[in-house]
Amino acid sequence: MDVLTLLLFGVGLVLLVVGANQMVRGASGLAAAVGISPLVIGLTVVALGTSSPELAVTVQASWAGRAGVGLGNVVGSNVFNVLVVLGASALMAPLLVSKELIRRDGPVMVATSVLLLLLALDRELTRLDAALLVAILIGYTGYLIWRTRQDPPPQEEDEPDRSPWPLQVVRVVGGVALLVLGARWLVGGAVAVAEAVGLSEVVIGLTVVAIGTSLPEVATTLAATFRGQRDIAVGNVVGSNIYNLLAVLGLAALVSPAPIPVPSSAVQFDVPVAVGVAGACLLSFLVGYDVTRWEGALFLGAYLAYTTYLILEAINHPALPTYRSVLLPLVAGGLVILLARAVRFWWRRRQDVSGSASGGS
User: Fold this and answer.
1) Are the beta carbons of 249 and 54 closer than 8 angstroms?
2) What domain range is 137 assigned to?
3) Domain containing 297 — which CATH number?
4) pTM tops 0.85
5) Contact 1, 192 (CB under 8 A)
6) pLDDT in tens, 4-14
């Protein structure tokens, strides 16, 4: 591993972020030009746009025969989005969660995470598995568009960029080109780093590459939180996670020359962690329709503990058994607390509704 490899790795990250930003701006402008509502733009075009770095890296890794990087990138990005992006945003300000997000998109995020675990049990993702993921993606996106037409959204969201459409096309094409080039350099650098320090491709994908490709979600969510658009901040994270699983992994498995192998470690630990994180995210939504500051701190602490575990396991550190024996009870305790708070909130809500009904009669 030389200085040039590290330089290309860093430049690849920058190109991914710049390319994603230009593609989102151009795609949003084109969507607005053909009359698609702002809500649909946010749930589809922008969600896919912020997931475009993951798509570029995962497809590139699949073609290069580095499937471990691609799979780790998707799983790691989903974990990072909830624990770090959502956690950091909640620390800035408590995040409001809409009822629609709780009833529809949150459960979809959990269900698609569980589906990935089921598909990975045979240790590979085939084209048939990919076709199923893409079919669900089409159905989900179609439902969003249909539902929006049935229930028109409020007109209070940010106006899309209304530059001339030729400029929007240039932005989309240029953004895609930057994504492809950035993905190639990022994957090459990540593999070189993995070989140099003795880490597996999956671990590099779960950490360094996942964080790098999640930078568009970081920028979008933190900016929305700072502007007070906290429902948009939460929706961006949930929507990006759904599209990571359905579009990114589905399309990567479709174009891969061979089935994508799933390591035993991913089935036994990494993918279950992603399922657990998605479940914890939905539980936090169910309590008060928000994500509080203390929950944000809990999410950030969980990511630090998770990353520490990955590193200790990768280098086979002698402290790993002790760390594992402490970590598992803490994780279980955190989930129990979230579940207890959700049950308590809904029980009180039910009592309040019953009391109101009794008073009214």
Assistant:
1) no
2) 3-159+180-347
3) 1.20.1420.30
4) no
5) yes
6) 777 887 887 78
